[in-house]
Amino acid sequence: MQSPREPKIPPEVPKAGSRSKLVKVQRAHETCCAKTNQDFNTEDNFNLVIPGAFPSSPPLSPRLAPLERDESVPVSAFQQMDIDIAESPELPTELGSHLHPRRPAKFVSASASAPRRTRRPSTPRTPIRRPAAQDDMAIDDPWNRQASLFERLPFGRPVSAVQLFSPKPRPIPANRIASIYATEWEKRARESAALEGEPGRTVRIVPQGPAVRELSWDWMNQIKRAMKAPQSMPVAKSISGDALYQRDIATCINHQAWLNDEIINSYLGILIHYLRESTGNLNDKPLFHAFNTFFFSTLRDKGYQGVRRWANRAKIGGEGLLDVDTVFIPVHGGAHWTLMVVRPMERTIEYLDSMGSRGANQVKKVKEWLRGELGMKYDEDEWTVLKSNSSMQDNGSDCGVFLLTNAKAIALGVEPTAFGASDTILLRRKIVAEIMNGGLNGEFSPINKEGLLQL
After folding, report:
1. pTM value?
2. Where is the Ubiquitin-like protease family profile domain (predicted)?
């Protein structure tokens, strides 16, 4: 690297004199300084190392020596490599402009930035086809294949090819988790199948059409007049002759009220009277009986000794209990009504709860009563607890309505799940109307004009 040249100084500087001489001296000095700067800023002095300054910029990009043509290589080979050696004898490198960001653009070789003329190959290149990636996580779902096949088929298919419903649950495809809904429906289907084939179960029917019969306008008006009566005025009588007041039926008409004990006891008495009357059992030893609402609470609190005489007073006590067809036991748990059905002839126990409970503790108490009543005749292995299903209530006030309607359904041989929560308003009015009517006769006969069974 060459050392910087020393600036040239004019040989003589005239002393201060006339104005013209001073101007000439200044012009000569400026000319000398300009020439000195021009010589100093040459390409040779650009990379001058100045002590303490920023590291110098990299040198200019080196130029490669002219490439000599190899006679052993044909010209067509150079053309296939996109290199025209005749047009570009020199290949300047383009790395210099990228080595340092401070390098001025004016020092980049013009030949490096100029576009190169190349000869394109005459034959087009064939794109390489890459094999499609195989998805190892793909699920072979027969349901989706069936759906895609259904979309491709025309709508003019024969009727035999149309599947309206699946009577049995379809198998779940591999690698798929069943939803909680499918699992629940399969569980209910298994329970229903087990209930149908359970020994000792009475066959019950589901009414065709609406399970609950509508109430006539005449009875609707009678219920309205009874509701307008004073609270202390009797508006109906039970089968045993006890008076029912307006405040009693109001607990059944009001949609958000709990049924009181008088309504429940009176309606169960109507059902027992219908069963004994329809079977000709009015004057003989009773085949049907319903305990009042205090029986189970006394049994729960005092044990068998608290209810030891209840069955004897109803003429079904002792070993004679095994000759009774049906015994209804209303169960009150403090804020919820349920129903216990005991069939001594069939040795079965049913517990119906509109909240879905199986009532293990309640069943245990009833078995305690049976053991105390039958004595040596009681064999626990002979008794079967049936897993009966009840319709579900959708509020906290209709449990008493479900208790009475479940008892009526069992008395008539109707499946308790035939009605639902949407029928409770009508059922409340019918309970009051049937109590005021004095039984299930006349307009409230279970068999309608078409000969169909309805609640």
Report:
1. 0.58
2. 242-410
The DSSP 8-state label assigned to residue 343 in this structure reads E
Range of the domain at 200: 194-444
Q: Is residue 105 part of a domain?
A: no
Question: What pLDDT sits at residue 208?
Answer: 81
Give CA 367 to chain center in angstroms.
41
Residue 385 in contact with residue 351, Cβ under 8 Å? yes
CA-to-CA separations, 55 to 47, 51, 103, 196, in angstroms, rounded: 10, 9, 12, 97
- Do 47 and 4 meet the contact criterion of CB atoms below 8 Å apart? no
**Residues 91-97: contacts with CB under 8 Å, at least 24 apart:** 91/64, 91/67, 92/61, 92/63, 92/64, 93/61, 93/62, 93/63, 93/64, 94/61, 95/61, 96/58, 96/59, 96/60, 96/61, 97/61
Considering 33, 49, 65, which residue would you say is the last residue of a domain? 49
Rounded CA separation 140/156 (Å): 28
Work out the pLDDT band at 283, boundaries 50, 70, 90: confident
Q: Terminal CA-to-CA distance of the chain, rounded, Å?
A: 117
The DSSP call for residue 209 is S
Tell me the helices (H) and strands (E) count for the chain, helix number first.
Answer: 14, 7
Distance from CA of residue 86 to its chain's centroid?
76
